[in-house]
Amino acid sequence: MEEDSVFFTDRSGRITSNPLLDQLPSYQSLLYRRKSSLTSTKRKGRLSSSGSLKYSVNTVNRLEERQKSQMEQRPIREFALPMAEKRRSKDQRLEKNQDLSSWTQWRQSTRRYLKRLRDDAQAFLSSMKLWRGDIHQIEGMFGTGILSYFSFLRFLVALNMIIFLLMFGFVMLPIIIVPYTSGNITYNQYDGSVCSIYPNTARRGLVIFHEHITDLLSGGGFLEQTYLFYGFYKVDKIHFPKGTYNLALAYLLATIGYLFLSLIWIVKRSATGFKRNLVQDEDRFQSFCNKIFTGWDFCITNENAAMLKRSSLLYELKTDLEEERIKQKIAGRTTKEKCRIYLLRIILNVFVVGVLAACFYSIYVATIFSQEAQMKSIKVHFIVDLIYEYLPSVVITLANFITPLLFSVIINYEDYSPAFEIRFTLMRCVFMRLTSIGVLLFSLWSQIVKCEEDPCVCGYHHKLYSCWETRVGQEMYKLSIFDFIIIVSVTIFVEFPRKLIVEHCQCGLAKWWGRQEFSIPQNVLEIVYGQTICWIGTFHCPMLPAICIIKYFFIFYIKKVSLIKNCRPATRPFRPSSSNFFFLGVLLIGLALACMPIAVSLAQINCSQACGPFVNYNTSWQVLPATISQMPEGAQKLLFALSSEAFAVSFFVVTCMAMFYVIALAGAHKRVINQLREQLVIEGRDKRFLIQKLCQAQKFRAVKSPMSKSQPRSPSGRGPSYHTSFSSNFSEAVFLAHSPPNSFTHV
């Protein structure tokens, strides 16, 4: 037996070799890799060839047995077989089960029953999903790309529901059930100092009707002293017959809990998209093949959506070709052209930074002006007062509306590739939207911590902000309400009239303008912006998650109607896997940004001494060490050990080692994926080689067949001619090409 030969199993189960298969590209690449090995291992490889072949055959047998057992455990209804064949298979299984013991039969029947029960439960839970029918309708009309936006919206509704249940169950529910139980409430004791004075704005006597509308939109007036805001929770402890409930500690732990739960849930969902992106990291040739052969979305059932999908695929191919042209253009640039492009990019980025700085300064000035106007308590006019209330929200919305348009114009002069243009523009928009919230909070805190007297007795401006947590909650409440008003207004007063103009006006300008595009990234940035406001405002406004649930519920139907009636899908849609990962990545950035102001509120700024559950502490975080100090000594030692520097360093080292292991594992998986891709390429070359040999054999047979009807003999007279042996060898090669991959091995 030769060392370098290809073995395979024929129809009779014998292991044979074929010299034709030695010419396959895969076998030639195998020879090339084996030649690079050390010469001292040749004899060892020759001696172990038969053993390795036997090991490979045994491995194949074990795999076949495992697959056979798995096929036998599958339900018969899942097989694509005629009914008579299914009945025959069922009778065969029943005959086999008769030979089993009663215990084995009971285990198998129990396993089948539990599997059927699990499948029914999963089907029932799937049928109970929110907006299941609407999402299927959107999927059928516009495909899975736009479907990912509505699925993401449903995920945010579920996330806010969990956040609301946490705040309601640990903060609101204990206060609500006290009158119906034998417990009593201990309220915070105010010392009568200037810091504990909190004017009650809810008791204003008879007011004009439009002031109630102002209170409803601003969160002031009668809403300020309700469960909606932080200032209402003046409870220190709740005494039940079986124990005492510390509301301040529950408030702090619920805040930390919903942030941590949001982080875990987002990371868990984004891991799936990251793995798909890792697998789909493909070269340019595979990208073209995937778009041409597997780019069609078979969930589309609408004719117009099919035409749009066809146009989007053509646009993607044109974009890829444009990227290739730009790459060739970049490779051929001279030093002078490179200097010109880099200088232009620097100038444009400086201009972008200037625009962002101007927007942030405008937000700061508008916030200061709005706070000063509200503190004067001078009523001018209903509309003017409402403008003063919503001035920061209006400025933020205008900045978020103007800057994306400006960024899309600037990016055209920076000479980037089309794919990078989209990503870079989106990252600029993300930075603008999320940072504007931080600038608003910074403007509020600059007013809150500014003291008129020296030294600062309360630690904050108690004359203007006697309950500054409620003031911050009102700002977040107004941002959420105004964001919803803008979404509804744009749909009614912009998208719907634009659709009527395009449909009923035959002028060229209207045709060029076209219908509104449903841009998935921009719509996602809107709800991520709203969710970031919800995370920040939940500590100051515990009912804000419930408001966001109602808000997202209406946004879903508004966007659905707008998509079907007013808009058309974007020319370049996102793929579902990449879009899901992008959505969750931006949402994770929003969560990280939300944690920063909450951490400052908990640990840096002094608590209000006139409202809230943390009156007896300087900062909200102090309730945790105060509670730990009342625990038994063993629990204190354990908690102090967990918070010590030694444990922190050890935990950091272990986390780094785990992270390095995961990175190494991801690199190994990446190499395996690359090897599998190379194997697919080599298998394609093998098939092309076999097809070429088939064409040569057919031509050779067509030339030789008219010469003699009898079988020709070789010149030596000992066997058939080369044509016959070649045809026989080629038939075996074709059989090999159609055989399962595990039926042969390279030795």
Helix and strand arrangement:
Layout: E1 6-9, E2 15-17, H1 25-35, H2 42-47, H3 49-73, H4 83-98, H5 102-127, H6 132-177, E3 184-187, H7 209-218, E4 235-240, E5 243-246, H8 247-279, H9 284-293, H10 303-331, H11 335-375, H12 382-410, H13 418-448, H14 468-504, H15 508-513, E6 516-518, H16 520-537, H17 544-566, E7 567-569, H18 576-603, H19 623-628, H20 633-642, H21 645-704, H22 722-737, E8 744-746
Parallel strand pairs: 6-7
Antiparallel strand pairs: 1-2, 1-8, 3-4, 4-5
**Which strand order do you get reading across the main beta sheet?**
2-1-8
* Rg over C-alpha atoms, rounded to the nearest angstrom: 36 Å
Helix content: 55-70%
Q: Can you tell me the overall shape? A: globular
Largest pleated sheet: 3 strands, antiparallel
Please sum up the structure shown.
With 747 residues, this protein is mostly helical. 69% of the residues lie in helices and 4% in strands. The chain has 22 helices and 8 strands.
Describe this structure in words.
The chain folds into two domains: 1-36 and 665-701 and 719-747, no CATH class; 132-643, no CATH class. The chain is 69% helix and 4% strand. The protein contains 22 helices and eight strands. Strand 1 (6-9) and strand 2 form a beta hairpin. The termini are close together.
Task: Note the main attributes of this structure.
three-stranded antiparallel β-sheet, 747 residues, mainly alpha, 22 helices, globular, disordered N terminus
